[in-house]
């Protein structure tokens, strides 16, 4: 009996069970899953700097499939080491000779994939029971892989729905405000926020639970959630720091504060996934002149820039996030629609 092989196999299997449960049922994903996703994203992004956004849209599914493939390999390796620990654990069905290493790989493979018995069979009650457990673990892996994949697909669809909803308000901060200003107050914007707050809460939870969601790219800028959230956050920044100090010009605190907090949580979750730690470049200040043309009571541009000083880190993180996903910063011109 090779006790080292047996112990190593058990450690791998216990770690894999822990990893799968944490990734599929817990929050923030398992440590191995997150590490694999980050490494693959950096590799794909480094090689795909000049690749079109259309091709980048395949990065997410590649990363998810790679994670599942690693799970399969670990399960296979763990059981292989366990069966390999005993020279007489697996015998040839006809010659009754001990299986060699490659035969053990073959036996372990068709066992965990529940393909039935082949040319080799377990010898003795203990190894027969372990073979049954190995088959059950293969079924367990398939079940939890589906449990992992289906919610990610649903979360991706929801992310794009939220992005399109935000884009319908406007592609830039100025457009959002110009399109939701009724000449006196922000009542149209408040109605949108009432609808958006629950969706942003769901989006936040998706990003916390499934960090791999960040790696699902899109070729349509209207569906890029980082751009759309940044535009909304910049629009709220203008409302808070760029308007004249009159009560009717402010959003209701019961809507403004929850929206701002949810945006902060989404930002931190995405920044953590991409491992963005140091940011130096700050995006340009939104141009208030286009808002003044629509009759919105804004302050002087110079004063607005001074007010933005306390938000330098927050805005720099939004810029770093959009650049990490391969998109340029928000346009300065307004694209209001009637």
Report the span from N to C terminus: 78 Å
Helix content: 55-70%
Report the radius of gyration as a whole number of Å. 27 Å
The largest sheet has its strands arranged as: 1-2
Bulk shape? elongated
Global structural class: mainly alpha
Number of domains: 2
Describe the structure.
With 338 residues, the chain is an all-alpha fold. Helices cover 65% and strands 2% of the residues. The protein is built from 13 helices and 2 strands. The protein has helices spanning 3-25, 31-47, 53-56, 59-84, 101-112, 125-169, 173-179, 187-209, 225-241, 253-274, 289-293, 301-307, 312-324, and strands at 90-92, 120-122. It has a two-stranded antiparallel ribbon with strand order 1-2. Helix 1 (3-25) packs antiparallel against helix 4, helix 6 (125-169) packs across helix 9 and helix 7 packs across helix 9 (225-241). The radius of gyration is 27 Å and the shape is elongated. Residues 332-338 have low confidence and may be disordered.
């Amino acid at each position: 009996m090779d006790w080292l092989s047996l112990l190593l196999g058990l450690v791998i299997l216990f770690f894999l069970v822990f990893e799968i449960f944490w990734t599929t049922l817990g929050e923030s994903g398992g440590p191995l899953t997150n590490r694999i996703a980050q490494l693959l994203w950096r590799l794909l992004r480094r090689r795909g700097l000049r690749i079109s956004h259309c091709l980048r849209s395949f990065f997410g599914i590649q990363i998810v499939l790679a994670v599942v493939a690693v799970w399969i390999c670990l399960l296979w390796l763990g059981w292989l080491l366990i069966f390999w620990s005993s020279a007489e654990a697996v015998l040839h069905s006809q010659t009754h000779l001990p299986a060699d290493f490659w035969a053990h790989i073959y036996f372990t493979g068709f066992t965990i994939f529940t393909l039935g018995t082949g040319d080799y069979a377990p010898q003795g009650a203990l190894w027969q029971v372990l073979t049954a457990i190995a088959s059950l673990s293969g079924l367990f892996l398939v079940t939890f892989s589906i449990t992992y994949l289906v919610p990610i697909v649903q979360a991706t669809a929801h992310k794009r729905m939220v992005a399109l909803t935000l884009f319908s308000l406007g592609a830039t901060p100025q457009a959002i405000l110009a399109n939701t200003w009724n000449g006196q107050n922000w009542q149209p914007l408040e109605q949108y926020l009432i609808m958006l707050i629950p969706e942003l809460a769901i989006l936040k939870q998706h990003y916390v639970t499934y960090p791999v969601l960040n790696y699902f790219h899109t070729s349509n800028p209207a569906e890029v959630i980082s751009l759309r959230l940044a535009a909304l956050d910049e629009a709220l920044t203008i409302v808070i720091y760029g308007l004249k100090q009159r009560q009717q010009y402010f959003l209701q605190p019961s809507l403004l504060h929850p929206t701002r907090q949810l945006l902060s949580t989404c930002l931190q979750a995405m920044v953590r996934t991409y491992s963005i730690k140091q940011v130096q470049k700050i995006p340009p200040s939104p141009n208030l002149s286009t808002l003044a043309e629509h009759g919105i009571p804004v302050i002087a541009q110079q004063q607005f820039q001074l007010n933005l000083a306390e938000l330098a880190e927050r805005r720099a993180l939004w810029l770093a996030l959009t650049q990490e996903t391969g998109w340029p910063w928000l346009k300065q011109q307004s694209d209001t629609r009637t």
